[in-house]
């Protein structure tokens, strides 16, 4: 940490320079103090040379003397750090929770990390290998369920049970969305303690889609088997849109539709997707009839699965 200089003084440099580089040369990396200025990241990269990614420019999300002000302008500092081609150390992102940012923690949390995505993009894509599974569990909750049946009603916290999280899109709040998507812990889950919940209404014939996962999965010669569980109102449908790229680089969207009127579904979506698949198996659990488990298979040899979206329609 950028604190003591080679002269033995407590003197934050807020950048990598001759006063602290000796320590940097003898360790894996350095966490720069938060009070750096606009050109300090670039200057630190020059001093670090080939080890520029071992320089972590500190950002205090609370905004205490940090470049750009932190909080809802954390991306200002991230933009500068990315341009300088060094690393970032984000300190205290718990600011969102500790200061009770509106309208609620989950929505504010998604919005804040959306700033990070907007600035730096997404570097890790999932799925990249099969099997791929997510129950949207965040390692905490107010109940635990197994295949739609509640087995515990206690509050719990166990980060080791966290599942891969969806990359929910942080849409511009100035435009009203017909469907609000978030992680929910109050409704009974299918597995674990969390759900992905879709709340809102759509006009007849309308649809709403949102990104869940970005993928980099090369499909082999054997079919891919898809299985997902849904609990919905009687007039609500939720399917999955799978975006593939062909060996020639063409985009091929495929809709895995919800069960229902096949002819109506085909009429609504056949001109929007290269293929529309109806589930070949739909099952209910006797002790939890609200949950539908939908299954289907797909042959796409040589294609790459790039994206998984949820599609809401009625």
TrEMBL record:
GO terms for molecular function: mannosyl-glycoprotein endo-beta-N-acetylglucosaminidase activity. InterPro entries: ENGase, TIM_ENGase. Coiled coil: none annotated. One of its GO terms (cellular component) is cytosol. It comes from the Eukaryota. Residues 1-143 form the Cytosolic endo-beta-N-acetylglucosaminidase TIM barrel domain. It holds the Pfam family Glyco_hydro_85. Gene3D superfamilies: Galactose-binding domain-like (2.60.120.260), Glycosidases (3.20.20.80). This is Cytosolic endo-beta-N-acetylglucosaminidase TIM barrel domain-containing protein. It comes from Genlisea aurea. The lineage of its organism: Eukaryota, Viridiplantae, Streptophyta, Embryophyta, Tracheophyta.
